[in-house]
Amino acid sequence: MLRCAGRIAMRTHVSIIAVSGVLFLVTLLCGLGVSRNLARNDPRPSGKPVASAIAGVHKLFAIATFITAAIAIRRLHRGVQFSSMELTAVILAGLFFALMVTTGALLSLGRARSDVILAGHKVISLLTAIPTFGAIFLLTRGK
Q: Which has the closest alpha carbon to 105: 88, 118, 92, 90?
């Protein structure tokens, strides 16, 4: 019985990690669509509903990605103390996610339509993935 419970728990971990990865990829793809619209022209003042819908979907998938990654890290952390490397990865993931939200908000406001902020948002999104999935990897090593 205990073996069966361990297998079910591991399948649950694997599935939530896979869902986090898929959501991250969908968020990136939606983000590419949003950035193309920003590069061509600013969709907010022109009132293009498709561009606004893509931006909304991008934000919803970003929130879903954050939540599923946080749930995966929390489930993997349950009952185990973080090592210094794991803790560093989790803190960096949180900081990068906060930076991503900040730069995304600046882009959404339309005031700061700077190419530098858009480039920073793209780089930070990739930098967020590294410690997030790194922490998940480090936490799954011992399981």
A: 118
